[in-house]
Amino acid sequence: MLPALVFELLPIFGFLLCVSTGFYLWIMRKKQKDAFAGIYVVQCLDFAYGISLFYAGFHGCFISANSDDNSAIQPVDCLYRAIHISLWCVLDLSNFIVIFLLCFDQLVSVIWTKKHKVINSLYMSQKFILAMVTLSMVILVPAWNFPLSQSDNSTIRVSPFCTIESVFSSKFYRNELNMRQYAPLIGVIMLSLAGFSLLVFQLLQNWSFKWSDNNEEAERFYFFVLTRCIMLLAVVHFPLYVLSSHINRQDPILEILLRIAYAVMFGLLEPITLFKLFPEYRTEFYSFFLRYSHNTKRTWQSAEDPPESKEDVGKEGLDFGSWYSSAGNIIGEAGVPYEMNADKQKSVSFYYNEMEKV
């Protein structure tokens, strides 16, 4: 049985990822053109990832509370009980498809600068990227092959926690983990080739090579894609390296820790990267918080507020109009009259002392 504490933490990290990505999706919803189209899709994937962590956490807590160490179910039952493991596989492949497109776009923009806009319009539209993300569901074919093919075999039972390795087979899990470990390296290689080509062209043209309509924006986007590739490598390799001497690779808790590492990396560090690299994001960020703080003047009146001062009460300009004097005595219309109005019997006492009654 996996520790219940692990599953209790998953919704927290899922919430972190949903908040950080959801904030970006909201404030940048009107800026989804050119490079930002790819970033927007990536943030949508991370938002879905956060939701899957929510579900995984609650699923694990439910199983912990309602199962014992001897509980077991058929692998096919996990397909509808633990939908998060299928979603994780789809999101993993989607992530690398989108990253590959973004890295390829960087390479095209340097090598085929003049034709970049024409080529870019073929694969960097949001519709095409979403179509590729939908196509990534093809990974479910090999994933579901084992549980579906063994659905009639009642002797094959797995833990109700439904780990990827036990449900989709250990062979599939090894291949899927290898994809997460090494696929981002393809992106790093493509970006390295693009960077080297750019350096050569700049040297040949005395640092006047124009590889985009806006070189500064293109550079920022290049560093964002490179940073994301490095993060994708780090969230797998770093935990595997640190935990290799403590946890076996077949231990189900390792996969949970890898997912938590992903949520921390892209829920905390990537928003900082976006904030530092893109002034458009900073502008929208500040605008969002200033939108509700520019007018803080209170327009309503509390019952405990002193009455508003009136111009015709007196000429002494006291701090609280005609209600309080600077010495603390009650003066004016409801108390001791002003000297100039002493002959007019308009004032009445509004204090009534019960002790004076006879």
Automatic annotation (TrEMBL):
Membrane-crossing ranges are 6-27, 39-65, 85-108, 128-146, 182-201, 221-244, 256-278
**Designated name of the protein:** G_PROTEIN_RECEP_F1_2 domain-containing protein
- According to the lineage, what is the superkingdom? Eukaryota
| Protein keywords | Membrane, Transmembrane, Transmembrane helix
